[in-house]
TrEMBL record:
Designated name of the protein: Glycosyl transferase family 1 domain-containing protein
Glycosyl transferase family domain mapped to chain residues: 3-61
Native species: Candidatus Roizmanbacteria bacterium CG22_combo_CG10-13_8_21_14_all_33_16
Pfam families registered for this protein in UniProt: Glycos_transf_1
InterPro entries cross-referenced by the UniProt entry: Glyco_trans_1 (IPR001296)
GO molecular function terms listed in the Swiss-Prot or TrEMBL record: glycosyltransferase activity
Length: 99
């Protein structure tokens, strides 16, 4: 994922299906990928940074895949509509009680 995404839906869906993600380390992907557990970030948008991320992936891909078996659906569930709505309401409730 070479560009900065507002929210990491593509990476979230990939993780749900057990696919580790290599993504640019800015934007929404930083909310959905756990570094070195469910994916790898490259921090510069250049060939060297991407090459380093791919080399790192090659070294830890089995660990990433195992983590995703355990964490992929849990991570996806966090952003399921009902859970997202409830978390949002829980964040607003203390604020709204001040008014």
């Amino acid at each position: 994922m070479p560009q900065e995404e507002d929210f990491g839906y593509v990476s979230l869906e990939a993780q749900f299906f057990g696919c580790p993600v290599i993504a640019y380390g800015k934007g929404g992907t930083t909310e959905t990928i756990i570094p070195n557990k469910t994916g790898i970030f490259f921090m510069a948008q250049d060939a060297m940074s991407l090459k380093q991320a791919l080399e790192k992936y090659d070294k830890i891909k089995q660990v990433l895949k195992q983590n995703l078996k355990e964490m992929g659906i849990k991570g996806f569930d966090k952003y399921a509509l009902d859970n997202f709505k409830n978390n949002f309401i829980n964040q607003l409730t203390p604020i709204s009680s001040n008014y």
